[in-house]
Structures are given as structure tokens and as C-alpha cells.
From TrEMBL, chains A, B:
Biological process annotations from GO: regulation of DNA-templated transcription
Organism of provenance: Jannaschia helgolandensis
Descriptive protein name: Two-component system, OmpR family, response regulator
Start-end of DNA-binding region: 125-223
PROSITE patterns: OMPR_PHOB (PS51755), RESPONSE_REGULATORY (PS50110)
UniProt keyword annotation of Cytoplasm present: no
GO CC terms: cytosol; protein-DNA complex
Domain OmpR/PhoB-type intervals: 125-223
Length: 223, 223
DNA sequence: CTTCGATGACAAGAATTTTCATAATGCACT
DNA sequence: AGTGCATTATGAAAATTCTTGTCATCGAAG
């Protein structure tokens, strides 16, 4: 698998590139938008991983230009937690998925694998559903039964993760890693707290509960 | 001019209704979404002023339903400063303009007059431009030369106001009133500070400066 | 050279997230 | 079924982070 990483921050860039190399991929790393655009146009990559914020030409512009030139390489955007508009823009510009920084490497790895599997199937994971609950990643908007639900950034990220793995149980550890990027087990119950708040917004006002507790393991959203 | 105000908060509701009456308009005030929908469908209004957050049926749903029923009455949404998604949603649902709370009454009055003048011309003031600077009110996104610019809520409001009055000088007092809803002149230099921060993001990284100082009066954005 | 505006640093205030303490619930075992 | 232990739920307080406003100082314009 040939991957181009476009990321100006050296630390993150190397972290990503090294990790992917260890998984056996061929990885190029570029730090400047303009150079990257040239590189992406002249070499054939399987996947592009692009930081949303770049000096010079920013990530969104790079992808827009590429798409304009009929380059269909799947793109995974890296954005920051608060940046709502970023995601909207990224996906609008022709991104296929995005990942919120900071992220656990396993998460990145999973997204890369998913993108590789469906080389050009943009637009299908962009609205996540479970029952009458809808999460529109484009607009960063959640509704249930047509009713708008306001979520804080972390709540959104947690719900998103559960929805992406709908039907499968997620342990606290898995959630801590994916949503909080904490890979040891600190004495914390953040997960419980956030699940509780999520339920108050997503489940309590409605008939059926979507977020189930699996005693002894973790949580799951029903198919 | 016959106006329906849909606002659950009594204080704001009365403030708006009273003010508009003093300007000679006929104003009805409703506090519940469902009642308001019925009222709007059975009576012919020139303008609807709708709070985004309503108990029961929220503002966006009211307007969506109305629009579904081919009711083309212009709608002005009232939203809160932080609520990004609100505005996007509001305009998407068929709103014609929006106003951020808290607002100065003069501002409301101006918007109402503008809506009255162009009864059905939605979608034209929704992207504000000046040179290569674009402000998309729908997506709450600012770009210059294609480059995305992140603005904080107050910065966005300030720039929006200047753009809406492009070419005209805005005094500090006018800005304080419109953007901060402060109608006396306190010993403050918030305007200067925010102009400075805005310039750092909007002008400094680019060739030409758009935000001009008019010494002795205030600020202006060039046509 | 005097006044007005620009700006960086700091402080206040809000919003968000995490921790902590306590209550509630489920499950195993009598 | 009842009791006790362990797990999960939740409200409130504390900590953190982000945003906004103030102040003091610097620079530019007339």
C-alpha cells in the first residue's frame, strides 16, 4: 500500500509515517501544501492522509485541486477536536473520511484499512444511523426522530465512535483509546460520565434506548 | 406591516414586539411552536421573527413545515452567539436571515426593513464578499483567496457587520451597538482590540488590506 | 509633539471536560 | 425472594481550556 502523508507538524507526521511503515506500507511524508500537490499529481498513491491545517496551501485546497484534476485517490483528513467547520469543509472538498486529533494509532490504522477496502465509495459513511437516530458527519449535526440534538465535542466524538461500530460492544478501554487517546488505564470514569450525559440527550427524551450497557464489558449501540 | 414574533422567552419577546409596535407595525407574539405554526398558516404575515430554540416544536421545524406548505413569508431567525449549527440549520430550513442574540433593537429594525424590501429574494445576502474575501453565512465559513480562516464568534460577528455595510464607515459607537449591544459609551477599546485581532487573521497574511482605518471616525471595508 | 489608533500581555468570564462522592442497579449466592 | 458485593449511573464540584475584555505601552498621523 502506497501512502502519502501531508502534515506540517513533524511530530505528528513522523508518528503517522513510522506507524504505517511498521505495518508494511510505503509512506512518503510532505510538509508543504504546494509540494504535496505536485507529488500527489505525479505519483500514484493508494491513500492520502492530509492535515486540514497546512501553511501555504491548506489541506482542503490541495484536495479540491486534486479532485478538480480528476484524481480519485481516497483522502483521510486529520482535523482538531473543536474544529467543526473543518470537517464540513474537508468532506465537502472531496475527503472520504476524517480523524480527530489527537488520535490513537489503531484508529488511524483502521480508517486506512477501511479506505483501502472501498477505493472510491465516498459518501456512504457520511451519515451514520441507528434506528431513528441520525448523525450527519458533514454538518456535524445529530437528530433523532427529526428533532435536533445539540452535542458537545466530546459527546459527539463518543457517539460517533459507537455508531461507527454499531452492534459491537465497545469496552471502556477501547473507548478511552479511541475517543480520549489514553492507552493505559487511569483511575477514571470519564467514559461512564459521558455515556450518562449522552443518554440524557440521546435516549432519555425518547421511547427506546439506543445506548445499551453490556454489564462487565462496556457499551453498545443496537443495530 | 404585519409581523409574527415566535419567541418563548417573555423578556425578549416583549422587547421585540413592543419595539416593532412603536415603529408602527402590527405585531403578534406567540410562545409555543405548535400554536405559532397554526397561527402562521391561518393568518397572512409579512414577516416572521422566529427564535431558533423553542420548547415543543423548535423554530427550525416550524419554518420547515411552513415552507413545505408553500408558505413563502420571509423569516428572520434569532440565534445565540455560540450556536454555529443553529444558523446553518436555520438558513437551510428556509430562513432568509438571522440575528445573533443579544442584539440592539436598531439592528433588528434594519433587518426587518431589508426583508420587507425584498419579499422573496432569499439566498442573496447569504454570501458576503469583499475582494477575494468570502464569508459564507450558511456554513459560517470565511475564506480569503480560497484559504480558510478560523474566526472566533465575536470576530465573525464584527466582520459580518462590516461586510454587510461594505464601503460605509462604521464608527466605534455603531459597532459597539450592533456587535456588542452596548448603547452608551463605556471606557473601552474592545473594538480596537477586535479589529486588531481580525486584521491579524484576515489582512496580515495577505497582500492587500481590506479593513481600513478612517482616522477620527472608525473603520470600513473597501468595496 | 500631541492625539488617536494598534497591539501584546494579562485577567476575567464562559464553556467544556474531568474528577469525586454517592446513589442505583444487576447479579450471584443463600 | 432476600442479602451482599460489584458494577454502573449520575449530580455536583473542581479543573481545564477557550474566549472575550482590560490595561499599559508602543507607534503613526496630523
Amino acid at each position: 500500500m502506497k501512502i502519502l502523508v501531508i502534515e506540517d507538524d513533524r511530530t505528528t507526521g513522523n508518528y503517522v509515517a513510522e506507524g504505517l511503515r511498521e505495518e508494511g506500507h510505503t509512506v512518503d511524508l510532505m510538509t508543504d501544501g504546494k509540494d504535496a500537490l505536485l507529488q500527489a499529481s505525479t505519483t500514484d498513491y493508494d491513500i492520502l492522509i492530509v492535515d486540514r491545517m497546512l501553511p501555504g496551501l491548506d489541506g482542503v485546497s490541495v484536495v479540491k485541486t486534486m479532485r478538480g484534476a480528476k484524481n480519485q485517490t481516497p483522502v483521510l483528513f486529520l482535523t482538531s477536536l473543536g474544529g467543526v467547520d473543518d470537517r464540513i469543509e474537508g468532506l465537502n472538498a472531496g475527503g472520504d473520511d476524517y480523524l480527530v486529533k489527537p488520535f490513537a494509532f489503531g484508529e488511524l490504522s483502521a480508517r486506512v484499512a477501511a479506505l483501502a477496502r472501498r477505493p472510491r465509495a465516498t459518501q456512504d459513511e457520511i451519515v451514520l444511523r441507528a434506528g431513528d437516530l441520525e448523525m450527519d458527519l458533514m454538518r456535524r449535526k445529530v437528530t433523532r426522530g427529526g428533532q435536533h440534538i445539540d452535542l458537545l465535542p466530546r459527546e459527539f466524538a463518543l457517539l460517533e465512535h459507537l455508531l461507527r461500530r454499531k452492534g459491537r460492544v465497545q469496552t471502556r478501554t477501547m473507548l478511552l483509546e479511541a475517543v480520549w487517546d489514553i492507552s493505559f488505564d487511569p483511575q477514571t470514569n470519564v467514559v461512564e460520565t459521558h455515556i450518562s450525559r449522552l443518554r440524557a440527550k440521546v435516549d432519555r427524551p425518547f421511547e427506546t434506548e439506543l445506548i445499551k450497557t453490556v454489564r462487565g464489558s462496556g457499551y453498545r449501540i443496537e443495530e
